Amino acid sequence: MGSNMAEAHPVGFQWVMEAKARGAQVLHVDPRFTRTSALADAHVPLRAGTDIAFLGGVINHILSNDLDFREYVVAYTNASFLVHEDYRDTEDLDGLFSGYDEAKAAYDPATWHYEDIRPQDTGHGKETSPSDQHGSGGPVVEGGSEEIAADPTLQHPRCVFQILKRHFARYTPEMVEATCGTPKELFQRVCDAWTSNSGRDRTAALVYSVGWTQHSVGAQYIRAGSIIQLLLGNIGRPGGGVFALRGHASIQGSTDIPTLFNLLPGYLPMPTPAQRTLADYLDAVSGDKQKGFWRNADAYTVSLLKEYWGEKATADNDFCYGYLPRINGDHGTYRTVMDMVDGKVSGYFLLGQNPAVGSAHGRLQRLGMANLDWLVVRDLAMIESATFWKDAPEIETGEITPETCRTEVFFFPAASHVEKEGTFTQTQRLLQWREKAVEPAGDQRSELWFFYHLGRKLRERLAGSADERDRPLLDLAWDYAVHGDEPSAEDVLRRISGQDLTTGEDVSGYLDLKADGSTSSGCWIYSGVYAGGVNQAARRKPRSEQDHTALEWGWAWPYNRRVLYNRASADPQGRPWSERKALVWWDADAGEWTGHDVPDFEKTKPPDYVPPADAVGPAALRGDDPFVMQADGKAWLFAPSGLADGPLPTHYEPHESPFRNPFYAQQGNPARKVYGRRDNPSNPSPPEPHGEVFPFVFTAARLTEHHTAGGMSRTLPYLSELQPDLFVEVSPELAELRGLAHLGWAHVVTSRAAVEARVFVTDRMRPLRVQDRVVHQVWMPYHWGGSGLVPGDVVNDLFGVVLDPNVFIQESKVATCDVRPGKRPRGAALTAYLADYRERAGITPETGTRVSTAHETRHVEPGHEEDGT
């Protein structure tokens, strides 16, 4: 669901097909009939942007028919915990949760917290920083589950289980059909298959990709899927789980050791200005009384600081904590692009991305890059983001002129993945080492080479500086091993893994890390990948020489565990739920956890362990608390904190939708980030009174034959000839409605752009009946741009910038559009054409800022656009 796995992740999909050959049932839920659908047992269509309504229907089916794996749910989730008496649900507030601030378009989550059985409020569970700054364990929840009011019978009206039942009660099969357009019989087939293949003896896996994430409620899509998997006992067990498929080799690695503005390596949050000292920071991250392994964030953080600054980092100077930057707001990619347009950014590095084509609102991206002093582009070919100043679509419209464009572009040819060594971290958290196959040609260089020598040159330039602002750069431990002039990737991996600085030995894992400055590690979750001085990621023992868990093929973080939270694969007494699904279990004779996988639990902690009242950190975890990174040791069906848009998934319509929300008066996600600017127009729902101007639902995705923004495929003749033209898929009914001819030309129009393409009339895009009327959906692949052997219009120009409030990802899987026959206008005629569409749709600069709530329609006033609300 949210994934065309056969086409976008074909190497991984071979294992789905192997499972199907052995009798596994494969169901594909997707707006479009794809190559995945063709190989599945059933294709289940739905309207783009309505996945929570569908998943909520599955949750309701489970709870209404008592199909949950009750023993697992009671023992391992927060189902029994009582929520604060002041909490109000969307059922009470017509689509809003308690704590919503209309003026800020944001929630105060205080009423979402658990009920504390302690006699007085001690600040238990109070958030100390915005949710987007927390690591994977969420905000601090002090104390263990013994300090949370609970009802193990799950009957108390304020327990999470009963709140869940009430919240999803309206998500009936009839509402799923009316909202998603999914026929009831197909929806029922999904429910039956999912529940019958779950429980004590069986498990089911859930696979998603960016079809889920790229929405204004993307984080809540994944929460909804997780709730189902928890209710059915499919987390922490073999054959279960929630798989986030990654678009190419090391997307997982780029979040672990992040390219994200709000995180440090290992999902540690970036410090805020208020956290002036290391003690302030650690108190916000883990507190003094938090339960679980996030309590040890002091060891993870200090070891990271020691890796960054080496001998310069001492206890006397807070281990150079003061050198870390402070997060002071939204610095995501889209906010940064707007800051470029506004003249607030002088220079930019582009590595491994092509925003002129590959990012939402391509026009905004190109205009931003055209307003820089300098731009550095590292890539395999001269991509559109390197040549926009002379060949962007805005040249035709006069918005960019080569003679006056102020941006100086520096292009550095990059080495490809076969021309460099190092690790990739795959979808399943597996680090795999790749040797260099061939030497890079000419001036091509690796990323390691580029950044190592950039750092070296900057440090040489600043040598002798007395300016305090230069100390963080000058004090860096920049002493990596070098082979010739190429930094050693293996030495970098060893530094990431970590060392005992008193002995020089490599650590075996994060349990070895200490907060006293005696250990270093560039990413605590990767610690142990170089255990014993051996590159564990380079192991390649054949599957025929080991069991099915294959622990000697690569290395998975953390500690080479192949299934996270695998303590949940055993019952509370430590016995496998079934012998068929045995993974780890308690060996009473040996007094330890053992099994086919590395236990994700303290090895010698027995299942009946009860912590003392004053225990904190891992010692506060009970013997039946499998979710060791969670602040209460349990999996969260209900999120008492840490999310910006509510403790439970809720169906909201996409920012642009041809329909009103049938569930609540609240139309869209009330906390979504809407950037109201003249250069970011949108057609926010509800669409009245001009809904006929953009009547269709638009979505975009990938093809196997091309790669993301096309820079690695449109330059190659043998790939280009397989998919030589940009095309738009429409149903026969829509083709008749708009007079479109198969293989003829048409153009798709949104409030931001018009894009021309060849017409592909196909039953793969079937019309759906939603709210008693027919809706047509339109699909395009997004790989084309102005350069290469097979150029075409930029599909991402059609999308605007509206973001999920938790992770700042764009809603680029759904928008409203029109489709017209023939090619689009060009130059000044295109500008006038789009202006006419916006006028007919009633779109003004303020329209795009409209955030309709259950109570009123709010507009961001001019001059207040910078806050992103």
Automatic annotation (TrEMBL):
* GO CC annotation, single: cell envelope
* A GO term, aspect molecular function: electron transfer activity
Question: What region holds the Molybdopterin dinucleotide-binding domain?
Answer: 696-805
Q: Quick one: where's region Disordered?
A: 116-145, 672-691, 845-869
Entries under Pfam families matching the protein: Molybdopterin (PF00384), Molydop_binding (PF01568)
Q: Cofactor(s) for this protein?
A: [4Fe-4S] cluster
The record, for Gene3D superfamilies, names:
2.40.40.20, 3.40.50.740, Dimethylsulfoxide Reductase, domain 2 (3.40.228.10)
One annotated GO biological process: anaerobic respiration
Which of UniProt's keywords are assigned here?
4Fe-4S, Iron, Iron-sulfur, Metal-binding, Oxidoreductase
Enumerate the subcellular locations listed in this protein's record, separating them with semicolons. Answer: Cell envelope
Q: Where is the Molybdopterin oxidoreductase domain?
A: 1-381
Composition bias of kind Basic and acidic residues appears in 116-129, 853-869
As for family, the record states: Belongs to the prokaryotic molybdopterin-containing oxidoreductase family.
Q: Which PANTHER family match?
A: FORMATE DEHYDROGENASE-O MAJOR SUBUNIT (PTHR43598:SF1), TUNGSTEN-CONTAINING FORMYLMETHANOFURAN DEHYDROGENASE 2 SUBUNIT B (PTHR43598)
Name it.
Answer: Formate dehydrogenase
